[in-house]
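Q: May I have one protein plus its fold?
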Amino acid sequence: MPHEPPDVRIKRVYEPPSGEDGLRVLVDRLWPRGVSRKAAAIDLWMKEAAPSDALRRWFAHDPKRWEAFRRRYEAELLERAEPLAELQARARAGRVTLVYAARDKAHNQAVILRDLLVRPASD
């Protein structure tokens, strides 16, 4: 019987929170500039699910480095499996919105994390 894929969404922290968001998980290593904790309405801050400082600095949100960043970040997540496993469990339990601060909506760690979380499990 096919499983329903987890309901994982992504949203910039600068967009207003919504009742549709479900569990709001910040997946940045640093707290976003200019946003109060109350305004961000974050339920869980998972710094350990964010790219390492070295990888984040290397990527510098350069779209030319996107594919290499994706590979390196996925490798980091698989090395420290606990954050990914926790997010997978939470996504199976209900809607999760991965919250990030980057300006680029197409090239950020939340996109990669969402893709990993909704990817069908290989048998």
Observations:
- Strands lie at 8-12, 23-26, 44-45, 96-100.
- The chain has a mean pLDDT of 93.
- The longest strand covers residues 8-12.
